Amino acid sequence: MINDLTTGHPLKQIVQFALPLLIGNLFMQLYQISDMIIVGRLINVQALAAIGASAPIYMVFLMIAFGFTGGLTVITAQRFGAHDDDGVRQSVFHCLLAALTLSVVLTLGLTLFLRPLLNLTNVPAEIFTQAYDFMFVLSLSSTFIIIYNLLSGFIRALGDSKTPLYFLIFCTVLNVILNLIFIGMFHWGVIGSASGTLIANVVSVIICYVYMWHKFPLLRLSPLFMHFHWQIMRDHLRLAIPMALQFSILSFSIMIVQSVCNSFGADVIAAFAAALRIEQFATQPLLAIGLSMATFAAQNWGANLLSRIRHGVRYAFLLASVISILGFVLVRYIGEYMIAMFIDGANAGESDVALIEIGEQYLVISTMFYFFLGLIFVFRNTIQGMGKPLLPLLSSITELITRAFAAIYLAHLLGYEGIMYASPISWTAAGLLVVCGYWYYMHRFSQERWRWQMGAVRQYLRENEPQD
Question: Which terminus of the chain, N or C, has fewer Cβ atoms within 10 Å?
């Protein structure tokens, strides 16, 4: 269902749009957690470590795709907010061209340079083969992930966040079932986990495209609008490329941390992999609010409703603050039991107990900084929705520098415990930066609008001045 976010109470619109995103993200995280539980229990800790050690490489390529498609569909949402139907159709065509080109480049890059990348991130020799097999099969699903995210991004640009949720739930359930079959029954190991992801993504693209074609006529490709215009493509790439860089920089910083983490052995790798999955699950409400603000800001920016964006940011900030506190309480007190799910409790040894302690220690530290992560999600996505990619890119560079410095320096100083402070330090620095940048942008936009209004008044008075 198409939903115009330029009308109605901002808080109600943000929450209604965010809830399906939250449920969908939780399902996605539940899949990732269940996948690691299946691997950790049905195979072994070595396989769990192989997935944890190699996943950041895939995340770099994956986040490039997320950022790129997200930037493309910001233009689609702005055109929709401005009630420019022809502009929406032109945007869909140019988005597809750009996304298909990117998918070819990323798939070839990941498959051809996978082995050097694994060596670059210090993947231990004892888990190298499993990590390579897992990543190679996953790389084959890159194109389908890019296209699915673009199609679901089109639907969200029109204000519908429920439909992509249904597809995601179906894909998640299918993925889990396939993993149980491939790993539990066929004994394919980590290749079974990656194969389940590949098949589920193919199915999700087909279903999403068929539904979009039948239910959203505005998003259908039409020969009248299937003409390449460099200016239109440039408008899309002006947002898509900086957002892709932003997301890739963030992923690259995580890959640096993982590279440092990999030097401490399989137990530490597995502990961090489990803890990060739990952290990602706990912070999904913040992410959902941020994604909601991106579309909310884009539609209202296209409709020239600056004050409405301000009101939406205030409500989103309050929501994120409350959620940060709840996430802190939840993860801090039950994180230990959640980490224990990743290993075979019946056969837990001393190394498994140490694994749980390491993961719990990380969660205790990181939860204290969820507030700053909430700032990043709300203010960065709002600025992106307004079509201003420079500041979000600078904040990502800040995260890269601070996270890499903290991981390398503190790991040298404190051992693996130093890695636990890398993300909190980067969240704090980037969060403060985007808040200051948001206030700067809004102040500048207000002044520009005031000068434009005063100029219009003076022009009106001159044109209607009484003649002698």
Answer: C
CA distance 429 to 394: 11
C-alpha 4 chain-centroid distance: 23
Segment 273-311, tens digit of pLDDT:
777 777 777 788 888 888 888 888 888 888 888 888 888
**Residue spans of alpha helices (H) in 415-467:** 416-419, 422-463
Top pLDDT among 259 and 111 is at: 111
Closest CA to 69 of 243, 213, 288: 243
Separation CA 13–CA 423 (nearest Å): 31
DSSP character string of 18-83: HHHHHHHHHHHHHHHHHHHHHHHHHT-HHHHHHHHHHHHHHHHHHHHHHHHHHHHHHHHHHHHHTT
DSSP 224: G
Q: Compute the distance between CA of residue 162 and CA of residue 150 in angstroms, rounded to an integer.
A: 16
> What's the distance, CA 199 to chain centroid?
21
Burial of 380 (0-12, 13-18, 19+ CB in 10 A): buried
For tokens 């609010």, name the residue. 289
Q: Residue 189, SS3?
A: coil
For residue 54, give both structure tokens. 């190699």
Distance CA 151, CA 57 (A): 24
Provide CB contacts within 8 A for 168, sequence distance 6+.
24, 27, 28, 152, 204
Residue with tokens 């990181």: 366
Query: Looking at the predicted structure, is the pLDDT value of residue 401 above 70?
Result: yes
Burial of 193 (0-12, 13-18, 19+ CB in 10 A): buried
Residues 6+ apart with CB under 8 A from 76: 88, 91, 92, 95, 153, 154, 157, 158
Return the DSSP state at 465. P
Q: Is 140 helix (H, G, I), strand (E, B) or coil?
A: coil
Pick the range with the lowest mean pLDDT from 262-271, 335-344, 422-431: 335-344
Judged by DSSP in three states, 388 sits in coil
Between CA 53 and CA 262 the distance in angstroms is 7
pTM for the complete prediction?
Answer: 0.70
Q: Domain residues of the chain, as ranges?
A: 10-453
**Residue 453, pLDDT above cutoff 60:** no
pLDDT digits (tens, 9 = 90+) for 167-179: 888 888 888 889 8
